[in-house]
Design brief:
By secondary structure, the chain is mainly β. Helices cover 5% and strands 31% of the residues. It has a single domain, classed as OB fold (Dihydrolipoamide Acetyltransferase, E2P) (Beta Barrel). A two-stranded antiparallel sheet has the order 1-2. Strands 3-6 form a two-stranded antiparallel sheet. Strands 4-5 form a two-stranded antiparallel ribbon. It starts with a strand and ends in a 14-residue tail after the last strand.
Amino acid sequence: MLKVDLGELGVRRSSAQVTDHYAAADLEGKRVLCVCNFEPKRIARVKSEVLVTGAHDEEGRVVFASFDHPVPNGTSLM
């Protein structure tokens, strides 16, 4: 389970499976693109409240979509 800080929208949970490329220590402070206006969905034992976006690499492992430069937590996409 990931916890994603969305700034003024608060901290939300995601059930994203990203352990192939990312260790827990690597994720702290990482900025990612996510969708937060979907209804929460229970996946296994996790109530997923935000969809973290990414793509599969050539071996099918998830790579996060992210920003080249820092932006504030919770910034909307344009």
